[in-house]
Amino acid sequence: MSAQLDKQILDKLKEYFGFTAFKGNQLEVIRNVLEGRDTFVLMPTGGGKSLCYQLPALMSEGVAIVISPLIALMKNQVDSMRAFSETDGVAHFLNSSLSKNAIQQVRDDVLAGKTKLLYFAPESLTKEDNVSFLRRIKISFFAIDEAHCISEWGHDFRPEYRRIRPIINDIGSAPIIALTATATPKVQMDIQKNLGMQDAAVYRSSFNRPNLYYEIRPKVDEVREIIRFIKAREGKSGIIYCLSRKKVEELAELLLANGIKAHAYHAGLDAVTRARNQDDFLHENVDVIVATIAFGMGIDKPDVRYVIHYDIPKSLEGYYQETGRAGRDGGEGQCITFYSYKDIQKLEKFMQGKPINEQEIGKMLLQETVSYAESSVCRRKTLLNYFGETYPLDDCGACDNCLNPRPKVDATADMQLVLETLQVIGDKFKIDYLENLLTGKATTIIKSYRHHKIEQFGAGSDHDDRYWGTVIRQGLILGLIDKNIENYGLLTVNSQGLSFIEHPFPVTVTLDHNYDASGDDDEDGATISGSKGGSAADEELFLMLKDLRRKVAKQHSLPPFVVFQDPSLEDMSVHYPVTIEEMQNISGVGAGKAKKFGQPFVELIARYVVEKEIVRPQDMVVKGVANRSANKVYIIQCIDRKMDFTDIARAKDLDFEELLTEIEAIVNSGTRLNISYYIDEVMDEDKAEEIYYYFRDDAQSDSIEVAQKELGGDFTEEEIRLVRVKFMCEQGH
Q1: Does residue 534 lie within any of the structural domains?
Q2: Rounded to two decimals, what is the model's pTM?
C-alpha cells in the first residue's frame, strides 16, 4: 500500500511541479500528511518546506488551511502556486489587505471546490466570521508555517501563534503539520507542547547548507567594505540587515549614491511603499534590499546571492534564518556579518525595562551569538551544534575560520588577572572600567574609587583595552563572569570564576582577522565550496532566456523567478526544448507552467537553434553619504511621486537653490531622476528644448556659466540647471 501511495505522490509531483524526485525526506513527510497523522518538520531554508504541504493539499479532498505570519509571504506563495496551476483559484489568502468583494470571491472559489490552499495570518484566523466560514467547509489539514513563532525561546516570537491550537479546536479537528527552518531542541519541545502534538512524527533534515559561505568581519570601515563587496557582484541580488530603521534609510541612500540599485524596507514605511520596494526587489528592478531584521520573513526569493548583516542579530536562530535566505536555489550564497561588541551592548540596552524572564532569555540567546562571532571554531560546526546536529569535519572549507585560521594566544594567566581584579573591586563596574583599570588609565572615576592605588592597576598595560575586552568577554562566554542586565552591564565574578582562580584550566583567546581593506574579497576566503555559480551550458542563450523571462514576468505582473527559476533556464540552455511537450520535461517546469508561460520561450529557442545551427540532444534527460542622506532619500521618493519642488524644499527646510544642489548631487552620484513633470509645469516648452539641444549638440562641457553666455540673457541659471539635470539623467545614465 505504501509503495502504491509513493508512486501516486511521485506522479503528482511530476504533474504539478515538473520534478521527478524529492529532496531529503520530503516524500516521507508528504506520505505522513496524506495518511492523516500529525507531522513536525524541521527543514532548513531552501530545503523545500512549502512542497511538504502544497503537494498533499493538491492531492487531498477539501482545503488545506495554511497559517503564515506575513501578508507578503502569503502573496508570494499564492503567486507561486497559481503559476504551477492552470486555475488561479487553486490558492487564496484571506487577510486585512483584501476588499469585501475580494473576500467574497475567495469564499465563492472555496465553496465551489476550486481552492486547495487557503492562507491566513494568525490574527485573521481568530475573527469570528472566518471561524464560522471554516466550520462550513471540509478541511484536509492545518499547516503552520514558521512554527518557531510559537515559542518565546524562538527568534520571531508572535504571541498570536500561541492561540492557534484553541482556534483549531473551535473550528474542528484535522491533522496538523508544523514547519520551521530554525528550532533548537528546546524550541521544538515548546512548539509541540503548545500545539498539543507531542505524538507527532518528527522529520528533521540536516541544517547544513553546504552552498553557503559564512564570514564574520570586524566592523571597521564597514560601509566602504559593503559598497566594494556589492560593486564586485554587479547584477546579483542581495539583502542587507540593519538593527534600526534609521540605519536602513541611511545605508540604502548611500548605496543609491554610489550607483547601486537599492531600496529600504522597514515597518516605518507606509504599506504601499513597503510593498512597492519589495516587489521591485522580487522583479529584479533593484539588486539590493536594505531591511530591518524583523521583516525578513516576507522576502522570499530563491536567487539571493549574498546576505550581509550590518548589525549582528540578537540570536543564532535569527542569524541562521536570515543567512538562510541566500542561495535557496542551491547556487552561490555568501553570508557576511560585521561584528562589533558595541552592537551587543546596544542589544543589551534594549532589554532594559522588559520583564526579568524576557531579559534572561535574551541574555542567553545573545551570549550564544557573541560566542559564535568570537570563536575560532568552524562556523558551520558551531551553527549545527547549536541546533543539535554534529558536523563530522573539522574544516568545512567554506567559512572564514576554516579558510583563514586566526592566531590564538594563551590567556590563562590574563583570565586569572581579570577575575582577581573583579574579586577586589566588587560588582559595581562595567567592562570599559575594568579595561581602563587593567591598562593603567587613571580616569576620574577610577581615582574617585581610589582603584589607581590597588595592585591590579596597570598590571595589564602590556596589552591594549581591545585585548582585555576579548579576555573579559571570553570569561563571560565560559561562564566565569556574570553580567547584570537590569543594572546595565555591571560585572561580577561568580563561583565558577572563583574556582578558576584557584584551579585554572587552559584558556585561549582568538585574535581578530586582519582584513586588508585594499585587498580582494576572494583573497579573504570568499570562495564557495560546492557552489553552482549559476553558469549555463550555452551562456548566450541563457542570458537571452533571462531577458525574456523578465519581459514575460512584467506582462504577468509577477517576479521573474515565479515564471521559471534559474536552474530551469539552465536546463533549457542545455537541452533546447522547441515544443511545449519538450518544455514539460525541463526541470522545475511541469505541464501547468509549460502551458502558461512556455510558448515564447520555445519560440525563442527554436529561432536560436536554427540561427546557430545547434545540434540538439536526441533524448531529453531531466537533471536533478553623508549626514544629509535622509534628505536625499526623501527627495528621491518625492520626485518618484511627482511632487512640486517648492513643497519638497519647504518640507525639508531648504531654499530652492539648496534643493537643486541636492538633486544635482543625487544625479551626479549615479541615480536617475525623472523631473520632466516639473520642467513641463514651470518652463516654456521651446525654452526647455533649446537648453536641452544646447547640451546635446553644442556644449563642450556642463558648465552653467558657459551655457548662460552661449544661450543669452533670456535663460535663468535655475532654468539651465533644471534642464541640465534632465539631460544628464536621459543621456548620461
Answers
A1: no
A2: 0.56
